[in-house]
Amino acid sequence: MSEERLHFEVVVVGAGPAGLAAACVAAESGCRTALIDDTPWLGGQIWRGQQAHPAIPQAAQWVERFQRGKAALLSECAIIGTAGPRVLLAEHPGGPRQIEWERLILATGARELFLPFPGWTLPGNFGPGGLQSLAKHGWPVAGKRVVLAGSGPLLLAVGAGLRKMGAAIVSINEQAPWPRMISFGAGLLRWPDKVAQGARLKWALRGIPFRCGAWPVSADGTEQVSAVTLTDGSRQWTEACDLLACGFGLAPNVELPLALGCQLNDGFVRADEWQDSSVPGVYCAGELTGIGGADAALIEGQIAGFAAGGRQNEARALISKRASWRQFSAALAKAFSLRPELAALAKPETIVCRCEDVVFDRMKQFSCWRDAKLQTRCGMGACQGRVCGAAARVLFGWGMESVRPPVLPARVESLCKG
Amino acid sequence: MPTTHVPPPAAVRLLVDGQSVSVAAGTVVAAAVAQAGRARFRRSIHGQVRGPLCGMGICMECRVTINGRAHCRSCQTLCEEGMEVQTDE
Predict the structure, then answer these.
(1) Main-chain dihedrals φ then ψ at residue A394, nearest 5 degrees
(2) Closest CA in chain B for residue A136
(3) In angstroms, rounded to a whole number, what is the distance separating the alpha carbons of residues A208 and A159?
(4) What sign does the dihedral A359-A363-A369-A372 (CA atoms) show?
(5) Cβ of A349: how many Cβ atoms within 10 Å?
(6) A124 contacts B49? CB cut-off 8 A
(7) Is the pTM of this model over 0.80?
(8) How are beta strands A87-91 and A236-240 bridged, if at all?
């Protein structure tokens, strides 16, 4: 194992739409640029598989633009913390790496929000986006009965994607009530591309029950999920399935920004005019600053890339587009806000922290995330609270305002050599 | 853009709990485990069976042992020829 120390003018973390756009623009501005991602592929989660099998023209364009440009790609490189001021410490199959930066653009994206309910720990229960990602990389879904539940536009996109791969979609259950969905749909007229996208999804999902105001109560099965019980608030019913794809929207991956000292605002990283964070030289773009989807992320990534490359004039030209996407982001947040019943799905004995097997009853005795962690070990296992910390925000209203290094489970050799 | 012939996906052979599995190139280890018919990837600290949840390297529920190295995220690791994967440890 060799230890490497690399230096770049601009370092971009995360190769999804925001990071790709930022890296392209920074490199085209003449900066020595690196794009870092912990996966072996480009495109992040939303464009996963697009590099190998391009199907989304926009994704293909950005991947090609990146490959044509001069930015270095450091893939399979997971940032675990810092190794001094303006130096990131990364783990890589070839050994630990120290990466020095002059300007840093964080585009670490979002993860799915999971809420605990009885049976949610059974194998066969996935996040919708997670199942879609796995299916693109060979997880067998053909002929499998899939129930989709939770919240957000992703449910429809994943339903359509899985159906195309041969899955039998049993039903799609959106927790938000019909009236909110209808007014969200009407408001989409301001973003014609989204209307077209919605219409395509609706056609792709024809014949499949789509319910609004319905949510899961429990997953049943012994060694894996075999059925899910759903409710509309007045009655309950059970649907047999092989796979349950359940996620309640997205939560930003704020661990690295927090470790670098970036201030948050209502759970998201605070970004100012040029996507600059509260830490000098550190920019944030994409889902980190608010859940807005790939189009919003591309604009924010470009603004950050231009700003880091010293081309504020070009960045300025994108500000009105960003404003429009921020309105879209606000509309999404309003339409898909979570109903209070979802915070009460866990029973006293339901596991909330899957890493340390901490149940709801144990956690609810405490008044904040820190106390619960210290007393129960919740959030102190392998995922370091990425799953239960986000859930605790919904269940108990607890915020996670700080992190401790390393921000990902790391090998001792990386910490020693780093 | 020149059109290129797309070759059929090459097969990769690996061992999952001693069982030989052949998967398409580009398959992640988690998917190979599922293709081998296994739902159980690991056990929780109290012995509950667990499998992948997030599919994107966040939740750590898909951890397996790969080529003797414990706690590898199988959803983020591509299958390689001759790989040895051990679940349920």
Answers:
(1) -80, -45
(2) B27
(3) 9
(4) negative
(5) 10
(6) no
(7) yes
(8) unpaired
